[in-house]
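Lab meeting prep.
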Amino acid sequence: MSFTPNPPTSPAATHPCSAELTEIEPNLAGADLAIGIAMARFNKDIGEGLLSGCCHELRRLGVTDVTLVSVPGALEIPLALQTMAQTGKFDALVAIGCVIRGETYHFEVVSNESARGVTDVQLATGVPIANAILTVENEAQGEVRMIQKGAEAAQCAVEMANLMKALK
């Protein structure tokens, strides 16, 4: 049995819903958005690099209303995010931190539970959260990724805030 692919066509033209499909395009306009950031102080240099990348990108996207809170470590971030989300003041939030693998199981606990906590807050409150808590093997990996990951988190926060507004 042989397989002959269909000639290339646009995905929208062949999609079964194409006649009634309405797509909400990504929107990275941040001028009217309020963004909150919760940053862990543990592994502070990488956290500050993440924050720098995030804030630079938020400014580039037009966001001027940014609030920063700092907490001791990654496990404290979800509670800070939850409290911020419950205020109703923020269109989106960003979680910033870095967990570096050590010689014990603690790395897995902190990595998994901080990620779970961030997701739980997002789902419980309906406020989008960009998770920029890096989990890396060593400090060098974090330093290489921090600026880019911070910028990506800013983009994610703005895009998701705009999407949530468009869906309501």
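Slide two material, second protein:
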Amino acid sequence: MQINLRIKETVSDLTKQLFYALFDDNSKQKEQLKYLEPIFKTVVKEITDKQPDNIWDAFESKLPEIKSKIELDAIATEKNDPACKSLQEIYLAYPGFHAIAIFRMSHELFLLDVPIMARMMSECIHGKTGIDIHPGATIGDSFFIDHGTGIVIGETSIIKNNVKIFQGVTLGGLSVKKSLSQTKRHPTIEDNVTIYANATILGGDIVIGKNSVIGANVWITQSVPPNSLVTYKSEINISTRPS
């Protein structure tokens, strides 16, 4: 099988330009989308047997909804990060927000059954931010990622509304057996949950109940009821050094 590896560069630029176009004024956006349409269709034709015209039309129709979701994510970031000075700062300088935004686009392509293009988009932003969100994941409104480096969110993860996740969090599977590819392998995170740095939550049957707080460095392989506080205790001894 011959594979055109150069198309990775095409998708990288296409991903960036589609994101920018979302926030152009109407006339500029129409102009930009008209320019991007044949590039998009060429990629679809290259990597799938799907009808490029149908995929583009369906994807383009979803852009206003994608933009609305991204705007809610930006507002959630401004609301939750005390270091944030403005929405402008979020759009221009926040890797977590950028990763979520590209996820929103790639997820729609995943739903349109163009998984390779969706994965290529997600890998573009993964390489820039160190945040790995599979485009098959389901993520609700007002999602906030703080810092973000090292976050992994698996394909069948379900994240509901108003969830906050910090750097190093893994929403993963207990097993990597190929036979489990069609099953739910990753956890469900209910509304208003906060997950602090380096927490690891594994398993498709795992549900983190709404309004819970998952502390840093915990390892979870069982469900957590709503309104819970989960913490990891380690003993730290501080003593005087000999002179």
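Talking points for slide two:
The longest helix spans residues 52-80.
The CA atoms of residues 107 and 135 lie 5 Å apart.
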